[in-house]
Amino acid sequence: TAIHLERNVTFSVTGSNGIINRWHPQWLPSGLESFELEDHNSSLVIPSTGLYLIYAQLCYAATKDNNSYEVRVINQGAASSHSKIIAQCSAGTTILDNDITCYTSVAQILQANDRVYLQQIQKHRHLLMSMGRSFLGIVKLS
């Protein structure tokens, strides 16, 4: 069971809630359990309980500001306000002409119907979303 998500747009600005949305599957092996996308394609619903590798990268447009995001999980049946952080990535630079990427991954035991999503910590950040620059993926390990 695996899925890799991207957004085939050039540029996006995170809103006031910082949740990255409108993901689209770039590949999903056929014949396996399938993931569902919810909440404007911002969160992935876990199809079955198990150990998962979750990986993500966001690419930020040239800025001297610090940029950080969290990988968050909402447990089955819990309200969105009760999500928990399972990983965080922070990146910054002093050179204004460089784009910045921030990659993180984490292995996590997840329950069926848990939801995984990315949330930008700082508001109104400029993300480069073209193919290969920003992505989110999940692979079931066992």
UniProtKB/TrEMBL annotation:
One of its GO terms (cellular component) is extracellular space. It is found in: Secreted. Gene3D superfamilies: 2.60.120.40. GO terms for molecular function: cytokine activity; tumor necrosis factor receptor binding. Residues 1-141 form the THD domain. The keyword Thylakoid does not apply. The keyword Transit peptide does not apply. InterPro entries: TNF_CS, TNF_dom, TNF_Ligand_Superfamily, Tumour_necrosis_fac-like_dom. It comes from the Eukaryota. Keywords: Cytokine, Disulfide bond, Glycoprotein, Secreted. GO terms for biological process: immune response. Pfam families: TNF. Belongs to the tumor necrosis factor family. This is THD domain-containing protein. The lineage of its organism: Eukaryota, Metazoa, Ecdysozoa, Arthropoda, Crustacea.
